[in-house]
Amino acid sequence: MAELVEHGQLYIGGELADPVGKDVIEVVSPHTEEVIGRVPHASREDVDRAVAVARRAFDEGDWPRASLEERTGVVTRIKDGIAARHEEIARMISSENGSPYSWSVLAQALGAMMVWDSAIKVARDFPYEERRDGVLGPILVRREPVGVVAAVVPWNVPQFVAAAKLAPALLAGCSVVLKPSPESPLDAYLLGEIAREAGLPEGVLSILPADREVSEYLVGHPGIDKVSFTGSVAAGRRVMEVAARNLTRVTLELGGKSAAVVLPDADLGAAVSGIVPAAWMNNGQACVAQTRILVPRARYDEFADAFAQAAGALEVGDPLDPATRVGPLVARRQQRRNLDYIRIGQEEGAKILTGGGRPPGLDKGWYVEPTLFGDVHNSMRIAREEIFGPVVCLLPYGDETEAVKIANDSEYGLSGSVWTADVGHGVEIARQVRTGTYSVNTFSLDMLGPFGGYKNSGLGREFGPEGYGEYLEHKMIHLPAGA
Question: Which residues are catalytic (predicted)?
């Protein structure tokens, strides 16, 4: 059994403080099913304390009034601290949520560092003030920090998503209350240590592990000026409903059911090698995962065989083993959910091409085999609902028009990709698919561009100047004629 990680205090305004209550969150390894950590469960009273110190830091403190260079210096040290401890962060997250260590290093830790670094670049180039010629005279348009931010992050990529919210908020001059998921609170303590060592001023950051009830209290707190939430559609709707009582601004990054469109002229090997890691990344627990693979009916058999063979070859096992490509799901409920969807898919008439159950020899741990369904119709539940696990659908189509129609026939609109011998034509397809991000002959997420979704995939954007602007208010100052 791994050494137990225990924390008895909460980060309130950057300082360790005793919690008001005595409730504890136990972190369970998805690989061993044993307790690997314990942290305090924040209470409503703890939320009140954190919001109060964040409010004082914003209303009266130096952070929002510091120069951009001063804030950039602190944030740069946070970024450097993450880089220096990236292996420790990766191991911690893999232990918490089952993410394969090889993927954790690149996406969970170094990916988070890249988010911090990209936000610094955006902040330095951002137009904070501009002068315009108004209808009635000259005007000055300013961008100012939005205030106190509640940042609610999920368990699947906790440091990456925390960076997507914290980096722009801090650079803009906001103070933040970070609410990590109860499944993955341990890595948040590492972030707290790094932020404190970087010299983040008192009151600017609090970290409160808690469940949904306390999260709802935080989101609805009258001292919060903005909520940035990443999670499920159902939870996002609730966040929006609660925040609306105070007219609190919200950014919602929600679910996806993204389609990878393989055009008839696509190179089979390139498509398979590009789509498989994009479909089964992070054990399929990724909102941008390419979970619907659309292939031309005329080439269906060869693509089906190639995708099934590649998926079946993915190494499943201990997430801390560098050879592992698919680890366990984060919790027993997620394992049951995926196995239920596998049953539903079979009942709907889809054919299992590979996988379909628990991996042989892995009786302990919340494992599900990388599973590929063939002969899937887009009306099936497995093609329409976000499963959030290693279950992927292969859908045949007739012509290109039908492929675009299937890709768009979803309540989600977060990501997608197209695979073709003609990049220019791929861009034409990209323009027709209603998603917030899209890739041609690759799958990537660039932190200098806007990330977010259409339809039920969310509201607002993260990354790039568009995401940075979510943490700024716009003010118009009228000037006298001739000024």
Answer: 253
